[in-house]
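Bit of a strange request maybe. I'm writing a small parser for structure token strings and I need a real example to test against, not something I typed by hand. Could someone generate the tokens for this chain?
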Amino acid sequence: MPTSLPPRSGQQYSLHHGDYAAVVTEIGATLRRLTYQGDDVIVPWDSNEAAPCCNGQLLVPFPNRIEDGEYAFDGSTYELPIDEHERRNAIHGYGYRSYWTLEGLEEDRVTLWWRVPDMLGYPFDLVVTAEYQLADDGLHLHVSATNRGGRRAPWALAIHPWLANGLEGYGDEIDRLNARCRVTIPADTHVTVNERLLPTGTEPVDGTKYDLREGRLLTQQPYDDAWTDVHHAGDGTVAARFERPDGRVVSVGGDESITSFQMCTGTGFPESRHPCGVAIEPQTAYANAFNTGKDLIVIEPGEGVSTVLFIRVEQQ
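Reply from user aminoacidic:
Good idea to test on real output. This should exercise your parser:
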């Protein structure tokens, strides 16, 4: 056994540029910390522990849930391990569990890659690359996936940052603190779910607590929901806004491949696993996409796809 071991989340890659600093872990190419002018933008976690609520994890090759861990694709049926036992779902893919290989490290940039192992539930030969870069306008994450195999591959992704609310709280008190924050999600449609948090349909947000198009204080928690039919700007990007009581405004979003957002307030979570903030996740597809086909990306043999994500901070 070596006399010196890295943290249990693997090597820690520290990035710096202007007002921003970040730490990305070897396990999962996970964004463990992001700060702006020394303040936490996302809720960080101990490098020797598991991310408590998927904090900062990159969710590939699928985000959110797959019903019963089963799906059919191109005439074959596949079975994934059940991770969420109380709801009998597979959840959040495999990338966050694995060590990623360092490709390049600079002061403001790190690039890591991961080749999907040959698994019964996902036997597709993909190589996934994640490049994090800090710039004057915040954090940029470029994720690409290349299909090196001979069969088509289903694909979707998200990132799962818990945006810090800038306050100090613990357990159920966090809901009261989050209620002082305002969220804008530019989306016309709310995804309805059953008790297993699997989609059952969609509904217009008009006249409901899910209408966040003009911004809304989080006074009607809980939220653990997805929104779709998002409004992309002229440059193809879309962003959700999280306005904190201290005047910081955090925007999280991505390019034209982002079709939905998931938001979770953590209401009712165990106290030790309730981050002091709100998870807002840009996604290329929402829950159960491997079964529904909704917004599912299919990567042909020899081809690749990419998504650009970002997190930035402004001061009101």
